[in-house]
Structures are given as C-alpha cells and as structure tokens.
Amino acid sequence: MTASAHINPSPDRAQGVLMGSSLNQQGQALYNRGQYSEAEKVFKEALDVKLRALGPQDYSTGIGYNALGETYIRLGRLDEAEENIKKAIPLVSSSAHDSAYYRENLAKVYEMKHDLVKAKEERLQGSPNSIICAEDNCTVFPLPHPLKYCSRCQSIYYCSEKCQRSDWKRHKKFCQSPAN
Fold this sequence. Notes:
Elements: H1 11-32, H2 36-54, H3 59-75, H4 78-91, H5 96-112, H6 116-124, E1 148-149, E2 157-158, H7 161-171
Antiparallel strand pairs: 1-2
Helix pairs in contact: 1-2, 1-3, 2-3, 3-4, 4-5, 5-6
C-alpha cells in the first residue's frame, strides 16, 4: 500500500482535507489536555471525514488512524490501538520519520501487552536508519549508532541515557529480562 498525493485536488477532496485536519487539531488539543474519551470521539469523526473524502489509502487517513491508536493506548484499549496503528503504518511508508514513529507506537502496544519479543521486532523493522527514540518527547531521529537499549529487556531503544531515565517510569511497568 502506498499513500496517494494530489496536486490539484477536487473541491470535495480539498474540503475533506481541511475539515479532517481541523478535526484532528481539535482532537489533538483534547488529547493534550488528557481528555482522551472526548479526543476519541473527535478523532473518529476526523477519520470518518478522511475516509469519505480522501479514501482508505491516503497519507492523511494514516495520520488519523495513528491519532486514534495513540488515544486508545491512553485509554488502555490495546487491541483497538494495535488495529488502528497497524492500518496507519503502511499509509505513511513514504516518510521514514512517521513510519518509525508509528512503529514505535505499535511497539509500545506490544510492550504493554507484555510481548517484548514482538515489541523489539517491530522497533527493529526500521534498523539501522529508521528507529525512533522510545522517550515520547524526544526529537532525535534517526537514532545514533550504536543504539542504546534497555540492558534488562533489550527490547527498547533510546538516543541517550537521559531519555532512557526519562522513560523509565513508563517502561519499568513492562520491563522484564528476556528469560521471563
């Protein structure tokens, strides 16, 4: 699957892009305030607009699936998060950064499901040049080599010890040695 690009969109398509983007921004504002249930509703509406106006293979539709997937992560609805993020990844394959970011989101879902092997496999799909730091607020991309990783579970990657320490509060709930 590849995302489509349109240089001279039809009026309906242009309206769909504007409306879908506006709704996405509204959903993101709710998400940033921690209002995940409200964000879910708005992201679903944005995705519906994008699907109708742009189609299921559009890059912008992929952004919508990922936004909804991230919201489901926050709501603890991991199966729904996995389903949506899996739909998003192939739609943004033209962007190494977005692909890496979405793969990291999917890896976090697997991590939360205590499947560290699958989490590591998902992260390493972008190796060596398209892996993103697991710390949510980090902007380093691609990760410097050699990769820094959790010495205990060996399934999560960081750009620095600072980012690893910052992510530890989240990651420690799921971290276990590979033998477990």
